[in-house]
Amino acid sequence: xxxxxxxxxxxxxxxxxxxxxxxxxxxxxxxxxxxxxxxxxxxxxxxxxxxxxxxxxxxxxxxxxxxxxxxxxxxxxxxxxxxxxxxxxxxxxxxxxxxxxxxxxxxxxxxxxxxxxxxxxxxxxxxxxxxxxxxxxxxxxxxxxxxxxxxxxxxxx
Length: 157
What we know:
Layout: H1 2-24, H2 31-57, H3 59-66, H4 75-94, H5 102-122, H6 128-155
Helix pairs in contact: 1-2, 1-6, 2-3, 2-4, 2-5, 2-6, 3-4, 4-5, 5-6
């Protein structure tokens, strides 16, 4: 279920949303704006918000199942990570209503996913779920980094 959720939120739903908006629009929307809006909404907003809720409510799942850390000691840290994920995710979800929020949410998500992905890379003895997290974190880091750079370049012209 975890892997399916990650694939839907990080790839399938953003791509489907982009296609629906571009194909359903009578005018030609700026592709970069549509691309950023939907990847930020799904991959940063929905994924981090949902992950944050799970971490805040069920910290043991993240600690034990994904990170392979047993015991009660890390649970309060995982819950605090959940609060941070809820916060970043909420900003990205709200960005669907205000295009001015897309770039800040994309930047925060890019930084978070890049750092988390690197952390997974250096982790020895990753389990399959942590591998899924690592691959998806690095994938969305690259997607968001490309978006942020292209948007900044386009905005400076």
